[in-house]
């Protein structure tokens, strides 16, 4: 068997396929869906990934246990997202013609939600770690359910909690260095009956991610130097345990999104938004825009105020501080 099946009694709706080595969890998840073998709540985790993909098809590699590489599959066919935070109007994802069109409006909201899920998980892990408790997910489930019961040593500085930021639209930063990122994609099954969301997450645990490798001898030719990893902040956790924390928080935040809409998640994201209130510029293949980063709208689009005091919304691009 190419993978090991992991079941967790605290995550009864989740099945983990653990791969010792795989080219890409994201690509494998798409293959599973195309073969009509998808199951909602299936999570693929790779200890070693040889051909991972990121935003704009950037390539990523990781050596064993140095990064978390995972993809979560969610069947959206019967899911609802509140269309308006103040009304009971819902979009149903079983409308054959409008599944992809409608859901793309909310795909960005889910990117923010996933970033918040990762951030909340990391803050909790640090608090548990500082309380001298084991950060093993199963051993510490009582703390995960009731965060208020965690007694932190006041001498321990909360490095992660005090330095955690979300960079538009799908990056996790510690200080001014990238810790990880998120990739979302909506995929139809081959019979176009089911619509799936792929949530792919990469987090640096023990070292810098590899961005270039010699495929003839598998030697590393380049590592990302401007990045951070959890071990730098005293967090020594294995990829599987980290995935459990994130999955648990992801489903918690997902219920909030389905029940209450985007408003609470939007507020949580903006609280830690990198460069909020500062002058930035956005570049993509079509244009370059600059202005003060003033927020995001309810579709997750970036909002800037330019030098003419015009409010502009940006759909996609790369953000930089001016």
TrEMBL record:
InterPro entries: aa-tRNA-synth_II/BPL/LPL, BPL_C. GO terms for molecular function: biotin--[biotin carboxyl-carrier protein] ligase activity. Keywords: Ligase. It comes from the Bacteria. Residues 290-321 form the Biotin protein ligase C-terminal domain. The keyword Ligase applies. SUPFAM superfamilies: Class II aaRS and biotin synthetases. GO terms for cellular component: cytoplasm. Pfam families: BPL_C. The keyword Ligase applies. This is Biotin--[acetyl-CoA-carboxylase] ligase. The lineage of its organism: Bacteria, Pseudomonadati, Pseudomonadota, Alphaproteobacteria, Rickettsiales.
């Amino acid at each position: 068997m190419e993978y090991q099946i992991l079941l967790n009694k605290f995550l009864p709706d989740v099945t983990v396929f653990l791969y010792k080595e795989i080219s890409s969890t994201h690509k494998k998840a798409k293959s599973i869906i195309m073969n009509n073998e998808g199951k909602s709540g299936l999570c693929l985790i790779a200890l070693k990934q040889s051909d991972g993909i990121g935003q704009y098809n950037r390539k990523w590699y990781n050596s064993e246990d140095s990064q978390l590489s995972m993809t979560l599959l969610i069947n959206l066919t019967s899911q609802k997202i509140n269309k308006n935070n103040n009304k009971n109007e819902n979009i149903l994802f079983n409308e054959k013609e409008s599944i992809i069109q409608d859901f793309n409006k909310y795909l960005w909201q889910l990117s923010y939600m996933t970033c918040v899920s990762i951030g909340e998980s990391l803050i909790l892990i640090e608090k548990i770690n500082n309380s001298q408790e084991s950060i093993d997910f199963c051993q510490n489930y009582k703390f995960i359910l009731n965060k208020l019961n965690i007694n932190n040593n006041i001498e321990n500085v909360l490095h992660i909690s005090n330095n955690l930021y979300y960079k538009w639209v799908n990056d996790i930063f510690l200080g001014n260095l990238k810790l990880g990122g998120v990739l979302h994609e909506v995929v139809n099954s081959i019979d176009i009956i089911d619509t799936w969301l792929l949530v792919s997450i990469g987090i640096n645990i023990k070292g810098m991610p590899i961005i270039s490798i010699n495929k003839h001898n598998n030697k590393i030719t380049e590592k990302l130097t401007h990045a951070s990893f959890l071990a730098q902040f005293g967090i020594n956790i294995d990829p599987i345990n980290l995935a459990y924390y994130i999955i648990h928080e992801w489903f918690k935040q997902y219920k909030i999104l389905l029940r209450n809409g985007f408003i609470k998640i939007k507020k949580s994201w903006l609280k830690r938004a990198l460069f909020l209130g500062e002058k930035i510029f956005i570049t993509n293949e079509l244009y370059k825009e600059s202005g003060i980063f003033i927020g995001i709208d309810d579709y997750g689009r970036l909002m800037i105020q330019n030098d003419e005091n015009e409010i502009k919304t940006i759909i996609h691009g790369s953000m930089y501080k001016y």
